[in-house]
Amino acid sequence: MTIVNAHAIAAAFYFTSKDRTRPSITGVYLDCGKQRVCATDGQIMCIIADAFIDDDGQSELVTVSAALRDLASLRSASSVCFDKGMGTVCNEDGGPLGAMPYKTIDESPPNYDRVVRPALTGDMVGRNFALNPKLIEPFAKANSVLVGKRNPAINFNFDGSESAALVAMLEYPAFTGMIMPLRQQGNDK
Questions:
Q1: Hey, which of 56, 77, 93, 157 would disulfide with 124, CB 3.0 to 4.6 Å?
Q2: Residues in the chain with pLDDT < 70?
Q3: Is residue 187 domain-resident?
Q4: Structural domain of 120
């Protein structure tokens, strides 16, 4: 059984892929060893630290349905308990708000440590860059869930020496995001 911050699960949902041919990026990775929740669609990624409340030491890659995301997004939601195929969303008193089935994805999770640059813990200083506005939407949605505000204070940074742009939520320091790789985005359809 793994118990995770509900809003971390809801925020991570926005970073999962819909591409069923790549199952390892369609789920949310619950990394018990590092106490992180991670999700990526292959181009954007989020890593939420300190998201665990309790765990059995078994990291797993799980599916998160839109219905489970909606329950976990409720302001009254406090935690999601993943246990034997059922995700139960609870309030601060431990009372259940609802439950949805989930599946464990039998694939290796994305190696997000390979993407996170060692300088992640340093200051985010760098230079300006351009990106596709569609890539910003998941960060704004995640900020709304995690912080409860519709006007996010989000810092995007690229120092020119790495392939990924770092994303920080100024009001939720446990969140780290990335946009990778930076490619020419002129004729994307």
A1: 157
A2: 114-130, 149-150, 152, 159-163, 181-189
A3: no
A4: 2-179
| Number of structural domains the chain divides into | 1
Domain presence at residue 184: no
What's residue 66's pLDDT?
A: 87
Looking at residue 188, its pLDDT comes to 46
Q: Which of 12, 33, 177 is nearest to 102 (CA)?
A: 12
- Which residues, other chains included, contact 25 with Cβ-Cβ below 8 Å and sequence gap of 6+? 16, 17, 19, 40, 41, 42, 110
What is the C-alpha separation between 1 and 127, in angstroms, rounded?
43
Cα–Cα–Cα angle for 64, 70, 188, rounded to 5 degrees = 70
Quick one: pLDDT at residue 162?
Answer: 58
Residue 188: inside a domain: no
Q: Which segments of the chain does DSSP mark as H helices, in order?
A: 6-13, 66-73, 112-115, 137-147
81 occurs within a structural domain: yes
Q: How far is CA 7 from the centre of its chain?
A: 10
CATH code of 90's domain: 3.10.150.10
Are 24 and 105 in contact by the 8 Å Cβ rule? The answer is: yes
